[in-house]
Fold:
Amino acid sequence: MLYFTKIKLFIIYSVIIFLSVFSLNNFVDHNKSNFFSKKINLGLDLQGGSYLLLEVNSQPIIDRNLQEKLLNIRSYLKEEKIKYQNLKIKNKSINFYLNDKDLKSFEDFFLNKENLVNIYYDKYRSYEMDYSNIENNISIKYSKFGLIEVNNSTLDQSLEIVRRRIDEVGTNEPTIIKRGNDRILIELPGLSDPNRIKKLLGKTANLSFRIVSESEEDFGSETLSYESSDEKLTISKRVILSGDNLITAQPSFDNQNNITIVNFTLDRVGSKKFSRVTRNNVGKRLAIILDNKIISAPSIKEPITGGAGVITGDFTFQSATDLALLLRSGALPAPLNIIEERTVGPDLGEDSIKAGALSLILGFFLVIIYMLFKYRKLGIIADLSLIINLILLIGILTILGATLTLPGIAGIILTVGMAVDANVLIFERIKEEMKHEKSILHAFDTGYKKAQSAVLDANITTLISSIILFLLGSGPVKGFAITLGIGILTTLFSTYFFARHLSSIYAKKNKNNLIKL
Amino acid sequence: MNSITKTKILFYNYYKKLNILSLVLIFLAIAVLIFKGLNLGVDFKGGTLIEVRTENSQISISEIRESLLKMNLGDVNVKKFGNENDYLVKIEVSKKNNADFIPSINKKLSSDLGSSINFRRVENVGPKVSKELLYDALLAISLALAAMLFYIWIRFEWQFSLAAIIALIHDVIITIGIFSFLSYEVNLSIVAAVLTIVGYSMNDTVVIFDRIRENLKKHSKLPISDILNTSTNETLSRTIITSITTLLALLSIYIFGGAILKGFSFAMIVGVIVGTYSSIFVATPILKYTNVNSKTILKDEDNRTF
Structure:
């Protein structure tokens, strides 16, 4: 156990030097950035920032799709002159009744792989909709895979819009990723006040231009209230123009009236429609509606033909900027709910780093002094091994680009406390061997040999805990699991390669002396 | 310095008394858990947690609570946290976390208290997420226990596995029981602590077991009580030294690591003490009760993996 070949020593010390470079780089300020200037990422709890978990609610889309499918089915049945009864949506399924002879032709249409109403997915070997027929009562509802497809596409679209909105705000290196099949995880480092982003993400941003009805009893109209007040207006349900036709939107200041406005430009289709409608409705009021709230309802004084328009309203410059941003980035397919939020202010993060560093340094020195007191010369070996261990641990964390969190710092401190255990196990064993071994070399050799199984067992158990914690933990706790787990590996390395080499040098030097441990 | 290595404590004299003590402690812990329950944090119960720093130091906890109660936010819990002007506010809301929610609280507090208010930390966990986190936490702890059971079963015999797992459950129940008794908050980091305790306690136990197995092979004629006693004595100095270094590191976190890590390091300190105790006085005697002898070890020797 005490013999090292030259090549082994070369490898051991190369690894140590290699990792030390990365480790020490964390404490040096670099101007240029390259592979060697990597630093440990600080978690949101240390550098401050915001973590948001959003849930996409695709139910409105499913309801809307069902409604659409119902219309498709009805028009098909009418076209084919098939008699049906009680066609309606109930409990999220489309139900109706058909005669025996019509049943066959409907099934030929609906359960045909090429039909356009009920898509067949080759990859799932399943239709979009589940079809069931009990005594000619037909029930059609979303299949498991149909729901997955709807959720996926809703999530993808939402992710895209969320990304655009956050990019427009211009935060520092945001992380925006999918989580599961209906969630979006957002990390915004350095952001101390996430309220503006929350506000922007809380809006679906469905924009529509609709004519204000002249009387309240007008058929096909509804009553909506203003965004800024409780005032209500009756508005036609017919959408003249939606946000889809918008190309750009910018906030600006109307010097004539001293108000903040939002300028927008329409695409070709949009501008044609807009000019036609405004020409036909001069004198009427045009309501601009966002998420079912009226922003404003100015009168149409003259046809607007250029494809550019202005939204007026009760804007501050901030709210006009946000409205323009929402219009530019497009509407979310479905509303988003914030189901988890964790925000840490930068001052708390700084305090945490200070407290973590202080307790790390203190814990480190306490352990080092204790080991010296307990083992004297061997204690130096254990302490050097501990220092190397710490350097390796930080080096690996740096190379992996791991994120250091506050619990992660606790994991490092804990590693410091537990890492000496491997050396303690070995030294205690050597002491025992010294009792009946004459040669120091022999005592060291058997000591290392016999302690091996206990050292391995002891470390593997902690490693198991940290792996489970890594797999099931979230956020900061994951950071703890990473440092604890890597700490075990570096402990084994520094004990079995570095400290063992030092011990062998020590034992060989003292092989003729009878030393007391 | 050699005093520890030479110690010859007759551990088996204490087995009965301490086992009864352990049973009583477990019984008490379970009783406290049933009747008092755990003080679950927002991670597991849902709600909003805000770490508040006020500029004005003349503010009392009840002023903050009264101001918040006026907002009809359900149960509101306010306590001091860390520094003098820092408070931890827990709000049990079921409302959706929309953009106006947190600013409205800030506005209300600063106008009622007449002080500028800084929210140093905001955590808002919805009911669905908190349920998932709780489920994951319980799953993680169960998985860890199962993994340990399996590992020891591969490395040793079933008796060792059983003994180790009983010791682990002992440690986990007593640690959680103490949290319940003291009404300390249980959050994600406490679960991390419990899992680490599981690893640590196992680590301690396994070292003694390792020695027991070795001694069973070496001295096949000795009665099991003597084997257990010798093994415990031989490893005692290591057990103590490792506990001390780990506790030194933990105390350093507990005292200087800031308010956020207090609960975590407290749980670990309790766990290390209980885990060390249980390795010697719970896991080891169970080997005696399950009639482990040199034959149990030798017959399976060929099947050992490493």
Remarks:
- Chain A touches chain B through 74 residues (CB under 8 Å).
